[in-house]
């Protein structure tokens, strides 16, 4: 049973071919947009690669770039096919390739849909990447004299200022690491010695944060040292008073930024996918309408176009049988090759 059969005359076939030609070139522009979005996301991730040291975070932008390029290639080719469909002589050379081309288009549509889903589903992977990268970056914050790490202080400071955040999960993360370089510590001072001795790992830990955690909107001058010592500051209570620091952690800030970017790109990619599906359906109707022309010498005659030649279950069954035949054919070829090698060895 033919699925979704539609009758076409010459005028309808011409309109369908012209409409598909226009849609394909619009889809080329859509592919350029997807490519540009992937490139933009990749650049944004590269900017903060020091705190995102995981290659998995680049899977989404690389996929967007790839499907954007493929969209431009496939739709340019489809535009040419639709243009030549208006001329029976030119269309004849495309006729043997249309079925394989439609199969490739279906595979591309599936890939595009999966890439769109990845834009929404890889948030968890991004979160773990950010958590690990930020912890490493904060640990190397003090290594301003170490080659390869001397830039980390500036990176973290600029990150906290730009995204108005402090620490990994919050400002208290800075209490657990030594973020002041030994170069700037007076080891002859009793206070410094006592702090280092009081720590099992011999680190100089303070209840303070870098200057980049300070909120310039606060009316009070920034308090970045002795944050938990109420007696060290006038009219100050760290438990009740709202601190003049950024309270949001940088992991949440970055996750919100990149998450919103990826969600927006996922929505755009889904819209492009719907457009590509519509083009594939139109190409299928154009293909079957031109194939079913009863009299090729009479371009005015009517023809029928359909989406599937059989019902969905029958089509799926035929597809599985073709896969089985292909597998058996490969197996027979392999056995024949083994028998030939055995004969030569004998």
TrEMBL record:
One of its GO terms (molecular function) is protein homodimerization activity. Belongs to the PRPH2/ROM1 family. The chain crosses the membrane at residues 20-41, 101-122, 255-275. This is Peripherin-2. Essential for retina photoreceptor outer segment disk morphogenesis, may also play a role with ROM1 in the maintenance of outer segment disk structure. Required for the maintenance of retinal outer nuclear layer thickness. Required for the correct development and organization of the photoreceptor inner segment. Keywords: Cell adhesion, Disulfide bond, Glycoprotein, Membrane, Sensory transduction, Transmembrane, Transmembrane helix, Vision. It is found in: Cell projection, Cilium, Photoreceptor outer segment; Membrane; Photoreceptor inner segment. One of its GO terms (cellular component) is photoreceptor outer segment. The gene is PRPH2. GO terms for biological process: cell adhesion; detection of light stimulus involved in visual perception; photoreceptor cell outer segment organization; protein heterooligomerization; protein homooligomerization; retina development in camera-type eye. It is a multi-pass membrane protein. Its main location: other. It comes from Chinchilla lanigera.
């Amino acid at each position: 049973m033919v699925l979704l059969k539609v009758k076409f005359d010459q005028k309808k076939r011409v309109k369908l071919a012209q409409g598909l030609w226009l849609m394909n070139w619009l889809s080329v522009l859509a592919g350029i947009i997807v490519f540009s979005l992937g490139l933009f996301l990749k650049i944004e991730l590269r900017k903060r690669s020091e705190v995102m040291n995981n290659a998995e975070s680049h899977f989404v932008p690389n996929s967007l770039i790839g499907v954007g390029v493929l969209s431009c290639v496939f739709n340019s080719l489809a535009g040419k096919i639709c243009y030549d469909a208006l001329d029976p002589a030119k269309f004849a050379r495309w006729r043997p390739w249309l079925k394989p081309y439609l199969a490739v288009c279906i595979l591309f549509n599936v890939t595009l849909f999966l890439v769109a889903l990845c834009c929404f589903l890889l948030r968890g992977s991004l979160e773990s990447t950010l958590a690990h990268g930020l912890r490493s970056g904060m640990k190397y914050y003090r290594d301003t004299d170490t080659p390869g790490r001397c830039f980390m202080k500036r990176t973290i400071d600029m990150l906290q200022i730009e995204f108005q955040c402090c620490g990994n999960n919050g400002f208290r993360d800075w209490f657990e690491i030594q973020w002041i370089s030994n170069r700037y510590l007076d080891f002859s001072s009793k206070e410094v010695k006592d702090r280092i001795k009081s720590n099992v790992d011999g680190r100089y830990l303070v209840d303070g944060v870098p200057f980049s955690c300070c909120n310039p909107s606060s009316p009070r001058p920034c308090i970045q040292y002795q944050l938990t010592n109420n007696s060290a500051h006038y009219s100050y209570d760290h438990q009740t008073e709202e601190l003049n620091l950024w309270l949001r952690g940088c992991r949440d800030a970055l996750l919100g930024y990149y998450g919103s970017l990826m969600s927006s790109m996922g929505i755009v990619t889904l819209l492009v996918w719907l457009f590509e599906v519509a083009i594939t359906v139109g190409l299928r109707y154009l293909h079957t309408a031109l194939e079913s022309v009863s009299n090729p010498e009479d371009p005015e005659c009517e023809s029928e176009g359909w989406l599937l030649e059989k019902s969905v279950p029958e089509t799926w069954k035929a597809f599985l049988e073709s896969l089985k035949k292909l597998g058996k054919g490969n197996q027979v070829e392999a056995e024949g090759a083994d028998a030939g090698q055995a004969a030569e060895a004998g």
